[in-house]
Structures are given as structure tokens and as C-alpha cells.
Design brief:
Length: about 90
């Protein structure tokens, strides 16, 4: 999944880079499903500016917001991917 970023030697840095990539992919997929930042915010129980921060990579969804998005998308978007800064790629909390 990392492709050209595989030169990263430190496993902690690798984890962070992979988490950011998964988080970004999941947020954009959730946005496509919801149709707009406002609609995604309603699904997640947050404000539109919060969703905007997630998209820009400034913040992350809370676990509660991620669980709400997972439920609203019938599991198409996994909370582990939205909270990739907490969970590894297998869905475990390292």
C-alpha cells in the first residue's frame, strides 16, 4: 500500500503514514457516500467545519463519530479506517 514510501525505516513512522493514508481514503469515501460535507456531518453527529478539518487532515473523527458513520453506511466505511490513528490495519489497537 505504501508504494514509493517503503523507504521509511522506522516502523512507528511507517504506521503513522499508513494510518494517515487509510484515514484519508475512508473520509473521502464517506464523503462520496454522504454526498456533501453537511450530510456527512449530520451522519456523524458533528458540525460541517469538523468534517472540513478531517478532509484537510487537520483532525480526525472521534471514535463515536466513526461508529456513527460506520452504522449509517451499513459497515461500508469501517470505524477502524476512519480512526486509523488509533487502530492498525487489522483493526487492532496497538
Amino acid at each position: 500500500m505504501l508504494g514509493p514510501l517503503t523507504f521509511v525505516i522506522d516502523s512507528q513512522i511507517t504506521f503513522v503514514i499508513m494510518a494517515l493514508m487509510r484515514n484519508d481514503d475512508a473520509i473521502h469515501k464517506a464523503l462520496r457516500i454522504a454526498g456533501s460535507q453537511v450530510a456527512l456531518a449530520r451522519l456523524a453527529g458533528v458540525t460541517q467545519p469538523a468534517v472540513h478539518r478531517w478532509i484537510k487532515g487537520v483532525g480526525h473523527p472521534s471514535l463515536l463519530a466513526a461508529l456513527k458513520i460506520e452504522a449509517a453506511t451499513s459497515g461500508e466505511i469501517r470505524h477502524q479506517d476512519l480512526c486509523a490513528h488509533i487502530f492498525d490495519r487489522n483493526g487492532n489497537n496497538p
